[in-house]
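PROTEIN DATA CARD
Card holder: Two-component system response regulator
Chain length: 224
Origin: Streptomyces davaonensis
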Amino acid sequence: MVVDDHRLLAEALASALKLRGHRVLAAAAPAAGAAELVITRAPEVCLLGTATPAEPGMFDPVVKIKRERPQVAVLVLGPVPSPRGIAAAFAAGASGYVRHDERIEGVERAIMKARAGEAAVAPQLLQGAFSELLNPAAQPDDEGQRLLQMLTPREVEVLVRVADGEDTRLIAAGMGIAPSTARTHVQRVLMKLGVGSRLEAAALAARTGLLDRAGPLEPRDPES
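Structure generated from the sequence above:
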């Protein structure tokens, strides 16, 4: 059985599996009703698609399926997950995790492993998960520090003000500079961060912890 929030994806995967000789009981959407459907139809394997493997409660249907139909092997199909996503899937009782951009041959191998009672997860996914678990803060901290080092102190102030929602006029007034100069600083910040808009710059700064590293703005002397 194939269940995914995107019906087109579920039906496409089901068709591909049928062409390879597998019997597909159903291709359904949305994934929110997966548990009841699987419990009713009792397939050997359920392919459960998700776009947010780390979201709390995402794998509650897996828990319910395994409680009511422990013989059903559940394979999660999703994006490259965080260690939390992989751990949550297996903790809920999933038999494997398959990237949603995997070739049909890879999906088929995962199905065979799940049927045989083996854990179906690509070694590179496990390696990546273990690496992140061993160095949980390295990636975001390093990225935030790297971005911070790319900016001058004035550009950092501009970024903080952008993240606070200030427009060019407010940035210029708050920093005691001309609006044209403020616009130039904003453009340089966007270019250095490799983003196309102020909203993207603010989101990147928040995600990487750059704003926390920058600290609060110091009060400015109006005459300076």
